[in-house]
Design a protein that fits this description.
Radius of gyration: 20 Å
Distance between the termini: 38 Å
CATH class of the largest domain: Mainly Alpha
Oligomer: single chain
Structural class: alpha+beta
Number of domains: 2
Helix content: 40-55%
Number of helices: 8
Order of helices and strands: EHEEEHHEEEHHEEEEHHH
Largest sheet: 6 strands, antiparallel
CATH topology of the largest domain: Transferase(Phosphotransferase), domain 1
Strand order of the largest sheet: 1-5-6-4-3-2
Strand content: 15-25%
CATH architecture of the largest domain: Orthogonal Bundle
């Protein structure tokens, strides 16, 4: 068995954090979220709460791939969080990652960060009617996404639950990315990459209209009409593909049962 780990900087709580990871399944941490794929537990260390994410045990192919050919999701989360902070993009402070290998490949892996408590995610803007300060939040979120694009950050999981939103005061908001293991970094992002990056966020045309209007104020290479049409086209395509996959999953579950 081989264990690899790395901490963001010298941690006086290293031993305690490693103990939580080694005993993750039997530990008394508070389970956070639904744990359908990955399991997250919260632990209090002195005056702060840390968030330990245990990634789903990979299948046979990925066990081998993560050992020899690809970085694990835990390691990517840690490294990408570091890059985001270097580029002044909000994300919970990374603390450590740990990988546990056997002769075959990766057994399990963990990503540790500070736990950030915020008022909402992007999801509430979709699901809650007349959310307070809705349009202002949505426009600030669009400016945040533009900032990502200008810095060459393509967040592949830019979806409703993966941006935490915290009110700073005076109707100003800060945004923090989570679930970081899928990202691309570019010298410059094309118009197509920028618009495609919005496709997972909302099925609501009125939200696309607001976001395209705000994006057009910042991106002079295309008109507002061109931005809206491309953003909406990519959104519709994604929604259709997603619905198709869901129907297929239901059929497979029916035949298995």
């Amino acid at each position: 068995m081989t264990i690899k780990y790395k901490f963001f900087n010298t941690q006086e709580d290293t031993k305690e954090i490693l103990l939580y990871i080694y005993n993750f399944n039997s530990s008394d941490g508070i389970v956070f979220g639904n744990g359908q794929r990955n399991v997250i537990k919260l632990f209090d260390i002195k005056a702060k709460t840390i968030n330990i994410k245990s990634f789903k045990i990979p299948n046979l192919f990925n066990k081998i791939a993560y050992k020899y050919f690809r970085k694990s999701k835990a390691r990517r989360s840690f490294e990408y969080a570091t890059i985001l902070l270097e580029r002044e993009i909000g994300t919970p402070q990374p603390i450590a990652f740990l990988e546990n290998y056997n002769w075959l490949g990766l057994r399990d892996s963990y990503y540790v960060s500070e736990h950030l408590v915020t008022e909402l995610t992007y999801r509430e803007l979709i699901e809650v009617d007349n959310y307070p300060d809705f349009e202002n939040i949505l426009r600030q979120f669009t400016r945040f996404t533009f900032k990502l694009h200008e810095k060459g950050i393509e967040f592949l999981d830019h979806s409703p639950g993966n941006t935490l939103i915290k009110k700073r005061g005076n109707n100003e908001y800060d945004f923090f990315l989570v679930d970081l293991n899928r990202m691309n970094f570019h010298t410059e992002m094309s118009f197509e990459q920028r618009m495609n990056n919005f496709r997972r966020l909302t099925p609501l045309k009125e939200m696309i209209a607001i976001m395209s209007n705000e994006y057009a104020k910042l991106y002079s290479a295309k008109t507002e009409t061109q931005i809206f049409e491309k953003m909406w086209k990519d959104t519709v395509k994604f929604q259709e593909e997603f619905a198709k996959k869901q129907r297929l999953k239901k059929r497979l579950k029916f035949w298995k049962s």
